[in-house]
Design brief:
With about 200 residues, the chain is mainly alpha-helical. The chain has 2 domains: about 5-90, Orthogonal Bundle (Rna Polymerase Sigma Factor, Chain: A); about 110-195, Arc Repressor Mutant, subunit A (Orthogonal Bundle), CATH 1.10.10. About 70% of the residues lie in helices and about 0% in strands. It contains 10 helices and no strands. It has helices at about 10-20, 25-40, 50-65, 75-110, 120-125, 125-130, 135-145, 150-160, 160-180, 180-195.
Length: about 200
């Protein structure tokens, strides 16, 4: 059956509605329209061209699987960029977890944790000591420095006020410095200096 308008002349929303109804051709046209634009949007947020290309593919695969959830009352581009942004954040957080783990493994194999290590490597060695803090103190430290979340984001995750999160971070850093000793404490102090100032 012939289409009334070629896919190239339809709006994004028309194509998305057709894709939602089962038209693979309409979805492919959307992917063609947005592939380069989505790459340009994602590239600064990811580490390389390859990572951005992979994320573009992953985004379109996710949208294709979930096209039935598209709400035609909204612009397709909003749905696309929201999904891509969430996937990029998830990918970034997974990468940070892997980097922290590999940093801890590398340091565990070194007899002298400060020998030849830069400030970031020394700071990553604090995670073993941080685990001994337990509970909310470890959690807020990990969310702030492991996941790079803001105080507002941490407050939403842990269900506490921003002030409570700031207090927890201050107590956690103080307790960590006491447990880690003078060498790692210097690294923790540097990390704290770029973080939040404790409430007075």
């Amino acid at each position: 059956m012939a289409d009334l308008l070629p896919t190239e002349r339809r709006t994004d929303e028309e194509l998305a509605r057709e894709a939602r109804a089962g038209s693979r051709r309409s979805f492919e046209e959307l992917a063609l329209r947005y592939k380069r634009r989505l790459f340009v949007y994602l590239r600064p947020r990811l580490g390389s061209d390859q990572d951005a290309e992979d994320m573009v593919q992953e985004t379109f695969l996710k949208l294709y699987r979930n096209i039935r959830n598209y709400d035609p009352d909204y612009r397709f581009s909003t749905w696309l960029y929201t999904s891509a942004g969430r996937l990029a954040i998830s990918s970034y957080r997974k990468r940070k977890v892997e980097e922290a783990r590999s940093g801890m493994i590398a340091e565990a194999g070194s007899p002298d944790p400060e020998a030849g290590a830069d400030a970031a490597a020394a700071a990553s060695g604090l995670w073993n000591a941080a685990r001994t803090l337990g509970g909310d103190q470890y959690r807020v430290l990990w969310l702030r420095y492991g996941e790079d979340l803001s105080v507002e984001e941490i407050a939403a995750v842990v269900g506490k006020t921003r002030l409570a999160v700031r207090l927890l971070l201050h107590r956690a850093r103080t307790n960590l410095m006491k447990r880690a000793g003078p060498g790692p404490a210097r690294a923790a102090s540097k990390a704290a200096a770029v973080g939040e100032t404790p409430p007075g």
